[in-house]
């Protein structure tokens, strides 16, 4: 599959776009907002610096060539007209994802395989809205995908095996370790391990048991991990944990969402991609 369309140009969507282009794919970046698309050149320069710092074989020439393989549009039909694969990276809200896929189904070519990058929702929650459930599955990336290069491939009970295999092959072609998830599971493999850690850290902070720096230091020192949970939150960005927790039945999770909105999101501190989140990266 050579022609990729990515729906959503936020933190992870933009990473998927550049990573695929860096590995030779032709990529269309789609977003509803022309303002969001206008910010992409700055996003590429931010990611250029990360590629050059983190990848031994990265060069300015390779990044320039990747950027040259990216085309941006806010016209959905235009974005999809040649797509072999569509990866959706819109906000982690079920109804937004279902509405997005219903619109995609109206204009996508018959050949196109559909994949969601949802972190927490099951493909079976979305499949019927796509119009082609047999050609729909999940391809989930870890943040900072150029170095945390896992691509979790997970179908639902109705996913065609050839679509599953094609997406796993695509993941390998763009530099990912394809993780074949054999049974539909909320959170795949990665987030089934990661989310309990992040939730526990959030609970400790909201209840005043320890401050952010102490929680992170404890995790790093005791386990040898390179980053603590709030550093991981900064990589993910504030939008995802806010959306996941703001309507939770758990009062503690709602309190966490309200606290990060009040103290961070409303102050423009959206995570490492914007220079400030729980920590200040501007220095």
Question: Topology of this protein?
Answer:
Blueprint (H helix, E strand, L loop, with lengths): L2 E5 L3 H12 L3 E5 L3 H5 L1 H15 L5 H9 L1 E4 L2 H5 L4 E4 L5 H14 L5 E4 L6 H4 L9 E6 L8 E5 L6 H13 L3 E5 L8 H17 L5 H12 L5 H8 L2 H7 L5 H13 L20
Parallel strand pairs: 1-2, 1-4, 2-3, 4-5, 5-6, 7-8
Antiparallel strand pairs: 6-7
Helix pairs in contact: 1-4, 9-11, 9-13, 12-13
Structural notes for this entry:
This protein has 283 residues and is α/β, with parallel strands linked by helices. The chain has two domains: 3-181, NAD(P)-binding Rossmann-like Domain (Rossmann fold); 192-274, N-(1-d-carboxylethyl)-l-norvaline Dehydrogenase, domain 2 (Orthogonal Bundle). 47% of the residues lie in helices and 13% in strands. It contains 13 helices and eight strands. It has helices spanning 11-22, 34-38, 40-54, 60-68, 76-80, 94-107, 123-126, 161-173, 190-206, 212-223, 229-236, 239-245, 251-263, and strands at 3-7, 26-30, 70-73, 85-88, 113-116, 136-141, 150-154, 177-181. An eight-stranded mixed β-sheet has the order 3-2-1-4-5-6-7-8, with helices on both faces. β6 (136-141) and β7 form a beta hairpin. α1 crosses α4, α9 crosses α13 (251-263) and α12 (239-245) runs antiparallel to α13 (251-263). The termini are far apart.
The CATH class of the largest domain: Alpha Beta
CATH architecture name of the largest domain? 3-Layer(aba) Sandwich
Terminal residue distance:
41 Å
Tally of helical segments = 13
Major sheet attributes = 8 strands, mixed
What helical percentage do the residues reach? 40-55%
Q: What structural class do the secondary elements suggest?
A: alpha/beta
Range of strand content? 5-15%
CATH homologous superfamily name of the largest domain?
NAD(P)-binding Rossmann-like Domain
Output the radius of gyration: 19 Å
- Which stretches are low in confidence, meaning pLDDT under 50 for 5 or more residues running? none
Instruction: Name the overall outline.
Output: globular
Number of strands: 8
Using the coordinates shown, work out and report the CATH topology of the largest domain.
Rossmann fold
* Structural domain tally: 2
